[in-house]
Structures are given as C-alpha cells and as structure tokens.
Amino acid sequence: MAGPRANWKGYIKFGEVSCPVALYTAASSSERIAFNTLNRKTGNRVRREFIDSETGDPVEREDQVKGYEVENGQYVLLEPEEVAAAVPESDKTLKIEAFIPCSQVDTIYFDKPYYLAPDKMGTDAFLLLRDGMKEEAVAAIAKTVLFRRLRTVLIRPHSRGLVASTLNFDYEVRSSEKAFEEMPDLKIEGEMLELAEHIIRTKKGTFDPSAFEDRYEAAVAELVKAKIEGRSLPKKKAPVASKPSDLLQALRESAGLGAKEAAPKRTAANANKGAARQKAAKPKAKSKPAAAATRRTG
C-alpha cells in the first residue's frame, strides 16, 4: 500500500545542520459527510455561477480577475501573474530561529498541524534534532514559505517524529478585551468556591480523543440510512431547560449534597483554620456551614 502523500518537501535547518524533510497533513475534514445542492423539483445537481452584480450577466472563468476595494465600489485589478510575482519566493527551507519552552505559545495562535518526518537521506540529523528537543523540553520556532505564504511554524517532538503547527499572525488573533468587557468585577468566596473546587476535583480525568464521538456525523449517517430504507427516525423529546434560581443550591446538588449540607473541606488544615476563625469571631456560637459569599472588588 502506498504511503501518504507529502503536502510539502524541503529542508529543516538548525545552526549549520540541515536535513531533508516532508510535511504530511495531520488533521483532515475529508472524511466528513458532504452534501450536494440539488434542484428540489428535478433532483438534479445545481452548479454555482458567477454573476455580474450590475448587468446580471454570467461571467466566464477567463473573465474573472482578483480585485482589491480601495473605495466604495472602486477596485484595483490584480492579474494572476502579478499576484504570483508578489508572493515571497520559497527556498524550501524551514529555518529554526529559536528554541522556546513548549508551554510559551498560547494555543490561540495555533492554526493547522502537520506531521514532519525525514525525507530519504538525513535521518540521523532529524533524530538528533528530535531527541535533543525532547531532552531539553523545548519547541522550535521556524519560518518558511508554505503554500505561497510566509508562515511561522511551531515544531514539537511528537511520537517518533515531529509535529509542525502553522501559527496565526498576531494581527489575525483578536484581542480578548471586547469579548470579556461585560464581565462583572466579582470575586467568589466561601462555600460556593469550595463546592466548585470539589466538583472539579471529582471530575478530573485524562484526555482521550477516541472517547469523543462526532454526534452530528453519526446522526446524519443514521438519517441517510433511514431514508434509503424508507423508514423514519423516532422524534426526539424536547429537552427541558433547568433554571436554578439559587446558584448555591445548584452547586450543592451537583456535588451530591443535601439542601443544608455544607461543602466538603479541602484539607484538614483548611478546616482547622476555618474553625479557628469562627471561634475567634463567636466563641460560644455553634459552628454552622460557611455561607455563600460574593464581594465586589475594586
């Protein structure tokens, strides 16, 4: 059986050492269910057509050209050969510029992953790079022209080879300020925080990608099968949305506690500290569960 086809071939260079490498797609959507657009009346496929926005006439492929809008309705025309000439020329080399801690790059910058493997000769240099990065627990930042664009690539040891992830440029990553500007300036304390921490501790696990099913794909496949067999799928019951009016009560129920049971203490030391604080505040009072508290910070 033929092996996978490389998306790109070139060299990886660190210092004065270089070796031939190949990039292979690591994640693909080609296995997803795809639909065609049909004419409901005839059942025939419809084709996409480009129409002149003013005249309404179809525009053939040879008459289509790229354009950049400089003003409202005013464009600069760019011929294919002009665009090709402006694209950085590839020297087919992944030039490593720095080695950095693996955790230093925020995952929000990650774009697409590719497997990076040695191509033909140069396996010794490739293994030297892979094992050296493993020993130092670092990733490599490299630059090259991939698919007609200058790209920054993060290279990390992975399995028996390396994985190269193209990175979004800084201007492509939107600031989080707008997304979080409506966040209230609150700090959660007391029993609510302890309950949340308890729920998180009891739900800790490990990441297993095989445990996550693409339920959309499975549902569509079942629908197609049912259509072919001439049967209908059972109607699903509409989910009833829960609307807990009391966050503390909802947390207690999530933690498996009764309405009046307090959150489990994180450690004996924390419990002793809490008891000491209660004793100092009310020497003769009977201890009660910590009240839920929120306070506005400055």
TrEMBL record:
InterPro entries: DNA_bd_Ku70/Ku80, Prok_Ku, SPOC-like_C_dom_sf. Homodimer. Interacts with LigD. NCBIfam families: Ku_bact. The keyword DNA damage applies. This is Non-homologous end joining protein Ku. The lineage of its organism: Bacteria, Pseudomonadati, Pseudomonadota, Alphaproteobacteria, Hyphomicrobiales. Residues 233-298 are annotated as: Disordered. The gene is ku. With LigD forms a non-homologous end joining (NHEJ) DNA repair enzyme, which repairs dsDNA breaks with reduced fidelity. Binds linear dsDNA with 5'- and 3'- overhangs but not closed circular dsDNA nor ssDNA. Recruits and stimulates the ligase activity of LigD. HAMAP family: Prokaryotic_Ku. Residues 288-298 have a biased composition (Low complexity). Keywords: DNA damage, DNA recombination, DNA repair, DNA-binding. It comes from the Bacteria. Residues 56-185 form the Ku domain. Belongs to the prokaryotic Ku family.
